[in-house]
Design a protein that fits this description.
This protein is an alpha+beta fold and about 375 residues long. It has helices at about 10-25, 30-40, 45-50, 70-85, 85-105, 110-120, 240-275, 285-315, 320-345, 355-365, 375-380; strands at about 125-130, 145-150, 155-165, 170-175, 185-195, 200-205, 215-225, 275-280, 280.
Length: about 375
Amino acid sequence: MSILDASWMDDELRILHDSALRFTEAEFAPHREAWEEQGMCDRSAWRTAGEAGLLCASIPECYGGAGGDYRHEAVIYDAVMRGGAAASIAGGNTVHSQIVAHYLLNYGSEDQKNVWLPKMASGELVAAIAMTEPGAGSDLQGVKSTAKRDGDDYVINGSKTFISNGQHAELIVVVCKTDPTAGGRGISLIVVETEDLEGFSRGRNLDKVGLKEADTSELFFTDVRVPVANLIGEEEGQGFIQLMKQLPQERLSIACAGATIAEMAVEETVKYTKERGAFNKTVFDFQNTRFKLAECKTEATISRSFVNQCIEKLVQGELSAEEASMAKWWCSQKQCDIVDECLQLHGGYGYMWEYPIARMYADSRVQKIYGGTNEIMKELISRSL
């Protein structure tokens, strides 16, 4: 089972998947090793992705997008991962198109949407969202970064870490406190355009266990001045509510990646074990191998079925925060479990970076951490009991 078997799939989406897959294999996959070496994809890859229609697929055409919905994003996401750009364009585009673009679309002013969204769709601007801080991760109410109003500007101070797209991003949605005394009610989202911006600096491109070709950075704000017009929403203090409303879509995207990588791991391992010989037979001929792969295939299919159902609910506006948390927890956990089993069936070769399963193993682990740890997901689920 794959995303192409979903009940909501149609011919247009199948054509989109095929096109995105072929494009990724031709334009991005050949650069993967070079991008891993430099710790990020080339900045030009974003413009290439924009020209191919891979960015902001779910943003209305009047704002430069493709006029689709989350199904289009999910199809592109699956295709780009399968095409060999899982950590670079696929992961970065999730932040860019599925997260930041939708904060602007759902809560931004018409001026903000008209100025920034077309440039995001074309790849002229790369976007990031700066939530996590050195002392605040899953607990977003604990952020320390501040934005104090001074006339027609906000003055932003603080630091962020683990920021996806952090080295490339020219447009950053910063989660900060406009009222440090008000807890969650004092959080606001403010857009920072980084070009020639005094007081803004990027730290090192962080050296991660996996996702080697995706830039992940520290960001620093020292008396950074941005116009009050860059506030997302009509008034201060709406940031926490905005975050809570959008996080289910972010968590579903993590679940989508989990389902796809689990499927890819099984497919890769079936192929490998049927070719690899041991004791005058193939590794696949051993009952243990077949039984382990049967278990993995079953769990991957359950993940896919659940994800496809959640995608349909999201498009219909019916996906609950609890269901999104269930999908994120289940699919990321099963992704890690399945990839680990599949690496074991590769033997020593599975630990070699040149084999796809090794990259999947390294890339998968963070899925249980970002977007809210899986422990936080269980806490959110338990509140519905």
